[in-house]
Specification:
Elements lengths: L4 H10 L7 H5 L10 H4 L13 E5 L2 E13 L3 E15 L2 E7 L2 E24 L2 E26 L2 E24 L2 E25 L4 E23 L2 E2 L7 E18 L4 E23 L7 E26 L2 E25 L5 E27 L4 E20 L4 E22 L4 E20 L5 E22 L1
Antiparallel strand pairs: 1-4, 1-19, 2-3, 2-19, 3-5, 4-5, 5-6, 6-7, 7-8, 8-9, 9-10, 9-11, 11-12, 12-13, 13-14, 14-15, 15-16, 16-17, 17-18, 18-19
Length: about 475
């Protein structure tokens, strides 16, 4: 995918980070000044102390994001390309919390089938030579997860902890084709992957819902990823996998969150949130290639990499319920992100004459900085004692800059003017049956992004690359709750 898709994806993910319930999703993801203990207990386990009796919750969701990107260049090198991608995610978690006051226990089990597809087509002309090509990929994965939590409530104070584990298996199919005056080539790859994760949560809760309340929690997550090829086809001929590539990575994530709410009157509640999110990972990859036109020629590349991402979020909100049948809420926030990546390559092999060679270490560096502003408005209205309708709007906008430095090519690229904006429109309802309640939400998120950058590859050569992209994200979420 193109460089700034990570920027867009981060923007979209930020909208759902604290909306695990259909109720909040239907209200434009307002959450800072809108208590929702049923979902908050699975973010900060200490908030399980707010649940009475037995609470069982099924919380299935469906999300689909489609992306289209147009890219063009001018000057000595002329290129036009189009990239399209679709990501589909579904989740089927079942959660429960039991009150044994002052002790509270709970857990969850979940299953999530996800898939994505990506296609890229280009038409490039350089110094009178034309080349066309395409690539496509399809990826599917299935994830199962389990969690357990416990909380202890004291007078005006509660603490809690939770652990969770998940395992995902995936399949990836990729195809590449290109054609020029020198001939044409094609290749296909099939991979299998495994990803395991382990998450720990710890939290504390002080105060009460009638006055001032402070919520603090930390999340630590460890991930391990491995993939292996199962099939390789080059120009229609299946190749023997004598030395399968090795591709592994390990990552860790630490998140610290502080939330505060203060009820200043019977109808007005203030809220605020501060979040620090840090991620780091290390990866290793080993590839061995053969020149199929010259069996003596081989190429081997070893790659090690490191990724670091730091995200800061801050914001405040207010809610107003003039009666027991209506609730209005508004909030605003800022998200600042800094992402860095470093890769080191070592290449070696034999040429067509069978003579060994070694290229040594090659490194490149990647950096992305972005700042996003977010504003949300939501409303909840009770039509009858059993039927509640909700609606909300969220808008986000921001800018960023990306820098790439290659020691191998002795080049530095800077993407400037990167901008993104999204408009999140949502709605939903709740209906109370005699023994349970059902919440539903529908979200519609179109976004538009654009950036251009001066690209300097050789001294004295500058080419401007304008790129535009459009995204459309659709999300359905339903929550079924039994409260005994």
């Amino acid at each position: 995918m193109r460089p700034f898709i990570a920027f867009l994806f981060l923007t979209l993910l930020s909208q759902f980070a604290f909306s695990q319930s259909a109720r909040l999703a239907a209200m434009g993801n307002v959450s800072m000044a809108v208590p929702d203990f049923e979902s908050e207990a699975f973010l900060n386990p200490a908030k399980a102390a707010r649940i009475s009796g037995l609470m069982l919750r099924a919380n299935p969701g469906y999300l689909r994001n489609s992306h289209k990107e147009d890219y063009s260049t001018s000057g000595q090198s002329v290129e036009k390309s189009t990239q399209e991608a679709t990501i589909t995610q579904a989740g089927f978690p079942v959660e429960g919390i039991l009150s044994l006051d002052p002790l509270f226990v709970g857990g969850s089990v979940s299953y999530a089938p996800n898939s994505s597809s990506d296609s890229y087509n280009y038409d490039r002309t350089y110094s009178g030579s034309r080349e066309t090509g395409s690539s496509s990929s399809e990826f599917s994965t299935a994830t199962t997860g389990f969690s357990a939590l416990g909380a202890l409530s004291l007078s005006g104070f509660a603490v809690g902890a939770a652990i969770a584990t998940s395992k995902a298996t995936g399949e990836d199919h990729s195809a590449y084709r290109n054609s020029s005056q020198y001939g044409s080539n094609s290749s296909e790859y099939d991979y299998e992957s495994d990803n395991t994760s382990f998450t720990m949560r710890a939290g504390a809760l002080l105060g009460s819902t009638e006055g001032f309340e402070l919520s603090l929690f930390a999340v630590r997550r460890q991930d391990k990823y491995e993939s292996q090829p199962t099939r390789l086809v080059f120009n229609g001929t299946r190749q023997q996998l004598q030395e399968p590539p090795i591709n592994t990575s390990e990552g860790s994530n630490l998140q610290l969150v502080a939330e505060a709410r203060n009820r200043i009157s019977e109808t007005v509640l203030l809220g605020g949130r501060a979040r620090l999110d840090g991620f780091s990972s290390d990866s290793f990859r080993k590839d061995r290639y053969y020149d199929f036109t010259s069996p003596q020629s081989t190429y081997e590349r070893r790659k090690t990499g490191s990724d670091e991402n730091t995200l800061y979020e801050g914001g405040f909100g207010i809610s107003w319920n003039p009666s027991d049948k209506t609730l209005f809420s508004a909030e605003a926030g800022v998200i600042v992100s800094h992402y860095q990546q470093k890769n080191f390559y070592t290449t070696s092999g034999t040429n067509s004459s069978g003579i060994p060679y070694r290229a040594g270490d090659i490194s490149d560096e990647y950096e992305l900085k972005s700042t996003m502003q977010v504003a949300r408005i939501g409303a909840e209205i009770s039509v009858t004692s059993d039927f509640i309708v909700r609606a909300g709007v969220e808008g986000s906008w921001g800018s960023g800059e990306r820098t790439v430095k290659s020691n191998y090519y002795q080049s530095r690229q800077v993407w400037t003017g990167l901008t993104a904006s999204t408009l999140y429109a949502s709605g939903g309802f709740s209906y109370h049956f005699p023994l349970f309640r059902v919440d539903y939400s529908f979200s519609f998120v179109p976004s538009i992004s654009y950036f251009s950058y001066p690209y300097s590859f050789y001294p004295g050569t500058i080419i401007y690359f304008p790129i535009s992209a459009q995204d459309l994200l659709i999300q359905h979420r339903m929550t079924g709750v039994i409260q005994l």
